[in-house]
Amino acid sequence: MSDIRSDVAAAVGRVLQEWGIADSVDPIVELSARPEFGDFSTPAPLRAARARRMAPMAIAEEMRERLTAYELPSIAGWTISSPGYVNCHVVDARWAPDVMAAALSLDSSVAVSAPRRMVDKGRTLVEHTATNPNKAAHIGHLRNACIGDCVVRMLRRTGGEVEVNNYIDDTGVQVADVAVGLRHLGYHQEPNETFDSFCSRVYVQVGRRYEQEPALLDIRRQTLHQIEAGDNEVARFVKELANRIVDCHLTTMGRFDIRYDLLSWESDIIALGFWRHAFELLRAAGAAVHVDQGKHAGCWVMPTDDDAADDDDAKVLVKSDGVATYTAKDIAYQLWKFGLLGRDFNYRRWDPQDHSSPATTTSAPGALDATLYGRASRVINVVDARQAYPQRVVRRALAKLGHQLEAERSIHLGYEVVALSATAAAVLGLPFQDGKNIYAFSGRRGIEVRADELLDRAVEAVAIKARDTASAVLLASGAVRYYLQKFTLNQVIVFDFDEALRTSGDTGTYLMYTHARAAGILRRVPEERMTGVPALHPAERALLHAVDSYRYALHEAADGLSPATLCTYTLGLAAAFTDFYEHTPPIAKEQDAVVRAFRRRLVACAKAVLADALHCLGLSAPEEV
Question: Where does the record place the DALR anticodon binding domain (predicted)?
């Protein structure tokens, strides 16, 4: 089937080739900003002005003449517009059926392709969520998971091979704090209190006890050493504690349809000697050096230059007490991700009775095929923007070990944090401070909105409009996911309950309602064979363009690792459908058979594309609400 936008781009490229500037000017073709000028436009004349040393409008006129001479059968005519665009009007009778056929041929088992884009043939490993296994997941963790899951969905939908990892830091200080509380301070779970919520409460209270009883810090230090040593009562207790918390996390994320291929445990990195091996590699390469004086005395560091002793910005890999830092273990893990470590985990199913559950690493013998995991050609770490420096250190370590390509293909997908609005802080009972509009989350102080709590509130908000409880849960989870994904990654989300749970405007609920509305029309209007394309109403033309733009928008979002880009497109598609619905006569009452069949098919196309986009965003596409 023909793709007129691609045909136009090929024709523009042919002109650029004839002018000898195809290497320096891209044949970009976009939707026209002014429908009266045409359906598609190219800014190529503007970009060619320097190379041709001519005025853009003169170049545009020459390009228009050449394009007209090509006599493309799908193009009705060419125009130019200031300051240097060439525009074209399509032949509706050719264009509309092609757009519709492409939309209705969408198949979840077949990748959505785009012209001139090469899909990375290697495996992309995406690590996201990585919630410490010491407390319930909160909205900040959920934003990370939603971003990561949406990126995974987009990459897979555009043909990429993707593995999803969730890193479990079960040897860190946070889980040690909860262990101290449970083993030494006598805290007990309340009736009807979930285990992860109980541990969140313990974590906060233990932090307060440290301030009152500093001697407890010695117990924490002993606990940490016992965890890292492994194969002792404390290590086994902490492992069981972490297992129970991870079960809670998987349940929470499952409520938002977020899944993983592999759970990677930090304790296995230690037990299997990953860090020790990586440390020897770094020492041999001169990338890890011992410091004898200064503030890093007794530490092993990765210097930013060749003089470690005087390098105050050097990253500590092993502290003076011999404990490896988080960044040190991240380096070993990153080497494993690329298949560069020379060591591997063992693997088993997380729930042996459920083959849909993720795999998990293990230091004991495992039954799963090791070649299914790691060995990536690109690694994307979804980590908040505050971790930019440690992520740079990890890349630097790869480069110092001679893995420059892998260093370049180590991507930190950073994002800004979630904070509380003053209104949300009041809902949570936090004391007001004059002039303060934003309140930072703090798990240590118990200032947070838990993911399960937010979803439960969302279910209550939409239940009044939902068909049943199951529909309410789908609408609510979609609403929360969209809210956390629609912001660009460099935006701080100032969380507000009312804004997050709105059901109209730029919301996930609106998108899902739009899909249900389209489904309702299709149920009411019998399908007929389309026999022609009537004169297009402006709203019909706009909806066709929105449908036609899907694969370009999806690939732009996937290439840019940008859920917000796909959110913007999907909102535009829903708005175009709403405009079509509100500004054209009801299809069920249409007497002209040609118009009726065409419009019903257009609704089916919009529904098909909207469903595909919603899936990539992790939202449901309900037939009814």
Answer: 511-625
